[in-house]
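dude i think i finally got it to work??
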Amino acid sequence: MVLTITILFSLFYLFQINKMTFALCQSREIPEEKQPKIYRTVNILITILILSLYVEVFFHA
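look at this
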């Protein structure tokens, strides 16, 4: 049950971060060819953050 909630929260959080990244790209008028690199970087960093949260909560608590 807790794992399901964690996964749903993670997906929601990643979606919200991608929405904010899109807004950043639009407001800063970042060229289309640079946007995939920005999304990839942000998604990798957020995934690392989510995985570290998972490890902290489930293995150290």
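DSSP finds two helices and no strands in the chain.
im so relieved honestly
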